[in-house]
Design a protein that fits this description.
2 domains; about 20% strand; alpha/beta; Rossmann fold
């Protein structure tokens, strides 16, 4: 399947379905109907079945879905059965937390290097990951395969973004306070900043009474 064939909203929901299925599996639930799964995922059954049709013919009429089988099919479809190499941009407290987060590795994402521009951070090794000067990005990316970059810089996020894009890194997760975008359809950037998510909730609260 080509990326353009899958609507962005459908991709968002497929990720939610996967998270719910992983939770069900941890609870030892083996099968679930499309109605119950849809309810847990916040959609209607017709939408659920339409979204899952992109993945394949996965359910059994009158039985529903095997939680384990559907979870595996979704993980494979979403690229989660593979291992991916990450680099980090900006050694902020959030960046250090991510480098030390074992859950990320359990999910198949491995930090290979980190980058910073402040002299006091260059040369540090955090959880086995070396911190390089951003000027060394070209050298490092020639030595290792880089699949994704994560920006956690608090003061110069645009500098890392520009460097990563120039280095032809195609997948970037931006966790900084500055939303960033790219015109190249061959590059995917995902913007997420915690206070921005809270802003949506503050708007809801302000206008719901």
């Amino acid at each position: 399947m080509k990326i353009r064939d899958l609507p962005e909203n459908t991709l968002h929901r497929l990720v939610i379905y996967l998270g719910v299925l992983e939770s069900l599996e941890r609870k030892k639930i083996e099968a679930i109907s499309s109605e119950d799964l849809a309810k847990k995922c916040g959609v209607n059954p017709a939408q659920l079945r339409k979204d899952l049709s992109y993945v394949g013919n996965l359910g059994t009429k009158g039985v529903g879905y095997s939680v384990k089988s559907l979870k595996f099919s979704l993980k494979k479809f979403l690229g989660r059965t593979e291992e991916w190499n990450l680099i980090l941009g900006g050694l902020s407290p959030l960046g250090e937390f991510l480098l030390n987060c074992k859950e990320i590795q359990k999910e198949g994402f491995y930090f290979m290097a980190a980058f910073d521009t402040r002299g006091e951070n260059i040369g540090k090794v955090i959880n086995g990951v070396s911190v390089y000067n951003l000027d060394q990005l070209t050298y490092v990316t020639k030595a290792i395969r880089v699949d994704m970059a994560i920006i956690t810089s608090e003061d110069k996020p645009e500098e890392y973004f520009e460097a990563f894009v120039n280095q032809k890194i195609k997948a970037i997760l931006n966790l900084s306070a500055v939303p960033m975008f790219v015109e190249d359809p061959g590059v995917k950037i995902e913007n997420f900043y915690f206070p921005m998510a809270l802003t949506k909730l503050s708007f809801f609260l302000k206008n719901s009474f």
